[in-house]
């Protein structure tokens, strides 16, 4: 998974370039300056809440066959918080017993944290919670912790970890099957698929599309990255009818930010996480990073920030996220 590589990457330095950058389409909001995405942060549980029909035996994403006998105490953890979001949206949120660092929506915020050092699972913290089933994916670990949980008799089901729009429905189906609520999964999948499709239809038609670059920034840790094909951000950018500038420049997943890379990407708009933007000193600090000031986005201060807990989650709120991104990118200037 692309984000699993982020902690080990840093800035690869290049001096700021001076070549002019040619943007993509005509940007009607070029003079509007920075904006923020506004999206509902809370998952919406389906009603009525289903009753799990167990035991069930499912095929885990790692190929193992796993039998789940109880969904009374569910632990749902992964890099993005999307699995816990799905469990909550299936109407089983009251059965969650712990959370990962990325699961921060209000209904789960007070649950015990079972990750340390960012996204590493703690076997001791998990075993103290006595879960009857653990749902996770290959993007979180270490693997030795999962083996320890299996050895203790806890069913561990790995959900697919692909971060794409089509995969959202697949993950909902996998989680619902593992918890013995397949009908609720079908209902939730239908709702989410419809929301995503509705949001995609808001993309403007005709004309040259805007170029949008996603930057992953952690200034306090010296991490400055640009997303490309397969980063996850590319799917959201393309869903609003824009061009992912990193992908168009030939980049894959996340690559260190350089002057040359930014100038070649030539984004009209730069998309960042809110905490990341803060970590580099806001918009003023961002435009001082390599190559930013030489892009149309940098010159026009066309920066869109999004809450860390929503943008790359690829969970049940993805349709709402796409709509919020489109609203932020294509918004009319405030009077």
TrEMBL record:
Keywords assigned by UniProt, alphabetized: Signal
Boundaries of every Fe/B12 periplasmic-binding domain copy: 75-333
First and last residue of the signal peptide: 1-21
Region of interest: Disordered: 23-53
InterPro entries: ABC_Transporter_SBP, ABC_transptr_periplasmic_BD
Protein name: Periplasmic binding protein
Gene3D superfamilies, per database record: Nitrogenase molybdenum iron protein domain (3.40.50.1980)
Species the sequence originates in: Thermomonospora curvata (strain ATCC 19995 / DSM 43183 / JCM 3096 / KCTC 9072 / NBRC 15933 / NCIMB 10081 / Henssen B9)
Compositional bias (Low complexity): 23-34
Family per similarity comment: Belongs to the bacterial solute-binding protein 8 family.
Family annotation (SUPFAM superfamilies): Helical backbone' metal receptor
